[in-house]
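FIELD: query
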Amino acid sequence: MPPTKIESNPIEKIATNRSMLSVNPELRSLIVELMLPRIENLRKIVSTRFVSEAEAANDTDAAEDWWPDYSIYSHLHYMTEMNGLLHLMINSLRGMTDELLTIGVKFQAFVFDNFKPHQTAKEQVEANPAEEKQKILNRYLLAQSLIKDMVTFVTCCSRKCSKLLTQRKDYFERASETKDMEDRIRLKIFDERSFSQMHRRMVSLKSFVEDFCNLFESDQSPSDQQETSVVSPAKEIST
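FIELD: result
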């Protein structure tokens, strides 16, 4: 089964309209407060590199065990091996789904409050065409779908990290016990594959979280951008 990933369509569709999505200051502050620390943690993770270190016979004591001949390096966070990186990933993702769900609930309430039908007949006549209002609403609904995609993606990444950590423990314990070259090579291959898979996912997640945060501004409300017309999101905004 192919790995779950965030579909880029929602954010690409929103990006086709260069204007940002306006939200109230409280919602904007909530997004920044919860997501900026996550971006910082993800930045530490994506800065890591898998470094293979060729055995230097002249610099190594003959009695000293040369293994492992590879390491995990980051200039932003001290770590030396894959176990530490997987733990860093798990800790960085812990609680993120709850934060995204909180943002999703607040965002849904904001959209409903700003797009609910509350006008008089006179206001309806004077308002801009409903099609224009619908276009704006659709952009907010796409942003909401992006939140749901990120929740799913973070959940899958967290489960994958936990699974890899459990599998790695078996490989590591065997390689440490036997000190057999074949067992050590198996562990190295496992670490290389794990690093490649999870690093790629963390890069994608960091990019999507940054793009999501940059979608919003709090200078004005949607009603200031476009005169209100009757478009009810009650059936379009999922609960």
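FIELD: remark
The longest helix spans residues 130-178.
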